[in-house]
Automatic annotation (TrEMBL):
Binding site for substrate: 74, 80, 87, 104-105, 114
Organism listed in the record: Cellulosimicrobium arenosum
Pathway(s) the chain acts in: Metabolic intermediate biosynthesis; chorismate biosynthesis; chorismate from D-erythrose 4-phosphate and phosphoenolpyruvate: step 3/7
The family this protein is said to belong to: Belongs to the type-II 3-dehydroquinase family.
Listed GO MF terms: 3-dehydroquinate dehydratase activity
Protein name: 3-dehydroquinate dehydratase
Keywords for this protein: Amino-acid biosynthesis, Aromatic amino acid biosynthesis, Lyase
Active site: 23 (proton acceptor), 103 (proton donor)
UniProt entry tagged with the keyword Glycoprotein: no
Superkingdom to which the source organism belongs: Bacteria
Amino acid sequence: MTRVLVLNGPNLGRLGVREPEIYGSASMADLRRSGAAWGEALDLEVEVRQTDDESELVGWLHEAVDARAHVVLNPAAFTHYSYAVRDAAAQVTTSGLLLVEVHLSNPATRESFRHHSVVGAVATGTVAGFGFDSYRLALEAVAARLAA
Ligand code: DQA
């Protein structure tokens, strides 16, 4: 079965308690459960991970390349400044794998420092602003692209 790693960056382990008016009341554990269910429906083997550590996230992106796994990535704050995450994400897409950047909120409507993504230019595409549905839509996009 086609593998998809759903990778999440810093502070997303605090989902449910962190600024729920922006990020919602559901937790990372809820996302793990939803991810598994969406994967089952789309015939994808979905694994949801979260880390606050930049080097761990870079390592997971390398792992995706080596394992030929597609990636759904919420880089969280790394979105806006991590060239290390950007360079690792580029290795995913240049090796012919899909990488969908996702955000729960719509960064374009928020503080100006969130308006720029250093990852977006190397992603296959981006889904933002739909809460947990951003992840579902990203997985549907992966499944649709693979079926095309
Ligand atoms: C986020 C948006 C980022 O600007 C922020 O730093 C996050 C979460 C989102 O999912 O909306 O941590 O990536």
